[in-house]
Design goal:
Largest interface: A-B, 36 and 25 residues
Number of domains of chain B: 1
Shape of chain B: globular
Radius of gyration of chain B: 20 Å
Helix content of chain B: over 70%
Strand content of chain A: 15-25%
Structural class of chain A: alpha/beta
Largest sheet of chain B: 2 strands, antiparallel
Distance between the termini of chain A: 22 Å
CATH architecture of one domain in chain A: 3-Layer(aba) Sandwich
Number of strands of chain B: 2
Strand order of the largest sheet of chain A: 6-7-8-3-9-10
Oligomer: heterodimer
Order of helices and strands of chain B: HHHHHHEEHHHHHHHH
Distance between the termini of chain B: 12 Å
Number of helices of chain A: 10
Shape of chain A: globular
């Protein structure tokens, strides 16, 4: 393993650390002993050829899939085995490779669903419209609007999600994940299906995340986007980490070039 | 605004109805319709709003009916108390049944609940020492009379019982409206639209699904209790899976995931077969035909279809959401 350790975050001060996580699907070892860490206000890229285990890695970190080995630590607590909604409530949100939104809801209603883990008033208060529940709901609506403005969908907030364009739906999915002001967001191929202009807007959004107190782990095939937004990059191949370093280091890493960057059809 | 006035008209018509109706049998049908609307509204919570089709409303109605009847007959509880306890017993049964069955999705959940309905039915038929089996429980008492000063409501009479059922239904409708329009209701609808994404957005889906299932069951339980003390006699027959299928039908017919849909659907499921008596032996064929035509041509149900039409007549675009 050739690991560039220029400004590597140590597991102790990390926001999230994956510690030798593995995943086995029957006879297929999708991920094997992968370790890395993400610090506060950091954007980390996760790249590798198709089938190298990137999405599996995100599914393990977010709790969508159980790990076969190893553990994930988030803000000091082991979160492996926790249900995904609990992981979200702890401040670790995620998006999906295939666009997911609530199609019948407006953009604002979508983002309000993402705020759900923040509500402090109980179900009875919410149903009986107690005054503190109502004011909390208004505060959440304001927060949802702010997130929509940040993501660039402010003018679309009352539009039904089904009527948004494909790129807008992808942004809306990110807005839902950002709704609860997570400490870390896992973005699984956020630019898929976007044209160059939309990709540039997305790059700006991702670069601005640390300023909002949100770190990001970005899976992408668009090397331009990855090199532009990431502070650090982790490279997977055949389920194993083959490199980690700054974009400049990764660009010239011979192992990465042989495994991934050299193949133009993936770049 | 027109929506509020439509609701007000409907309520006013429901209040006036027993005063102008001359045929006792119509009043009887109206009471049964109100009771079944309550069952349908329960089905709407889990099926229309949460997206999980449950084929157990009939069983929960049965549990409510038998609990209330037996509590008042065997333990000598006042009928008012037994009717209040029946939905709670039904809710407990729903927690026990729902916790494991809500782990499966889609058709599997429907099949599990169908099996539950069959189990409850078999128990009602065979636990003879408790339920008296197929011949049923006779002489179930009516609720104790209430003296309002100017009038005494004797609930063994049809008209007072009609108003009792109406008041209960209005209360249920108010609670359902509050739930559906709260963030709890929004979470339920998010689960229906995309459960995986709802979970990833931070919603503990299992809690909300269990709540929807238990709440829908307790409405069926209350409706069952109202049925038992109205009819004065129950046996297992009206609580078979047929009743559950009728509740599902009522939701689809009226408009799944709308507040007023089950009102229309539930009433039609009771009244339509009666209205079709003019067709004599072809009655059930005509009933089936109407249902098939509605599902094909008005797949969202009657209420959304009428709302769209009304919106178009007022020159607006068809509304997306109907409450």
């Amino acid at each position: 393993m050739t690991t560039a350790t220029a400004n590597r975050t140590t597991p102790q001060d990390a926001l999230l650390s994956a510690e030798a996580i593995s995943k086995r699907f029957g006879g297929v070892q999708a991920l094997k002993d992968v370790s890395f860490a993400i610090g506060r206000n950091e954007v980390v890229g996760l790249i590798g050829p198709n089938g190298s285990g990137k999405s599996t890695c995100v599914n393990l970190l977010s709790g969508l899939l159980p790990v076969s080995g190893g553990w994930v630590r988030f803000k000091g607590d082991v979160i492996t085995g926790r249900p995904i909604y609990d992981v979200v409530a702890r401040g670790l949100a995620r998006t999906f490779q295939a666009t997911q939104v609530f199609l019948e809801y407006t953009a604002r209603q979508n983002v309000l669903i993402g705020c759900h883990s923040l509500f402090k008033t109980g179900a009875l208060g919410a149903i009986s419209r107690a005054s503190h529940a109502v004011s909390e709901y208004h505060a959440m609506t304001a927060q949802a609007d702010e997130v929509l403005d940040f993501i660039g969908l402010g003018v679309r907030k009352d539009q039904i999600a089904a009527t948004l364009s494909a790129a807008e739906q992808r942004l809306l999915m990110i807005a839902v994940a950002l709704a609860a002001k997570p400490d870390l967001i896992l973005l699984d191929e956020p630019a898929a299906g976007m044209v160059a202009g939309e990709r540039r807007a997305l790059a700006r959004i991702i670069r601005d995340l640390p300023r909002r107190g949100t770190s990001a782990l970005v899976i992408e095939h668009h090397m331009g986007l990855i090199m532009e937004v990431c502070d650090r990059i982790v490279v997977l191949n055949f389920g194993q980490k083959i490199a980690e370093g700054t974009p400049a280091e990764i660009r010239v890493n011979q192992v990465v070039i042989d495994a991934y960057l050299g193949h133009r059809d993936h770049a | 605004m027109w929506k509020a006035s439509a609701v007000a008209c409907l309520v006013a018509a429901a209040i006036v109805f027993p005063l102008i109706v001359t045929v006792n049998y119509f009043l009887h049908l109206a009471i049964l319709a109100l009771i079944f609307v309550m069952v349908a509204q329960g089905a709407n919570i889990i099926q229309g709003y949460t997206g999980y089709v449950s084929i157990a409303q009939g069983a929960f109605m049965g549990i409510g009916a038998y609990s209330s009847a037996l509590l008042s007959m065997r333990l000598g509880l006042p009928v008012w108390a037994s009717m209040a306890i029946a939905p709670i017993i039904t809710a407990v049964a729903a927690v026990i049944a729902g916790y494991p069955s809500l782990r499966v999705k889609g058709h599997y959940f429907a099949i599990v609940t169908l099996a539950m309905n069959m189990v409850v039915f078999i128990v009602l038929v065979n636990w003879i020492s408790l339920t008296k089996g197929e011949p049923g429980l006779p002489s179930i008492p009516s609720p104790e009379p209430i003296n309002l000063g100017f009038v005494e409501l004797a609930f063994e009479k049809r008209r007072p019982y009609y108003y009792l059922t109406l008041v209960m239904l209005l209360a249920v409708m108010a609670i359902v409206t509050l739930i559906v329009r709260s963030r709890i209701g929004q979470a339920l609808q998010a689960i229906r639209q995309n459960e995986v994404f709802a979970e990833a957005a931070g919603i503990a889906c299992w809690k909300y699904k269990l709540f929807a299932f238990v709440f829908s069951a307790s409405l069926a339980g209350l409706a069952g209790a109202l049925y038992a003390h109205y009819m004065g006699f129950i046996n297992p027959t009206p609580f078979s899976a047929d009743a559950s299928l009728n509740a599902i039908l009522a939701v689809i017919l009226g408009g799944s995931g709308t507040l007023t849909g089950p009102l229309v659907g539930g009433a039609l499921t009771v009244l339509l077969p009666e209205m079709l008596r003019v067709a004599e032996v072809y009655r059930l064929i005509a009933y089936g035909l109407i249902l098939i035509l509605v599902v094909i041509f008005l797949p969202r149900g009657l209420v959304p279809a009428v709302a769209d039409l009304a919106a178009r007549l007022r020159g607006n675009k068809p509304g997306k959401d109907v409450a």
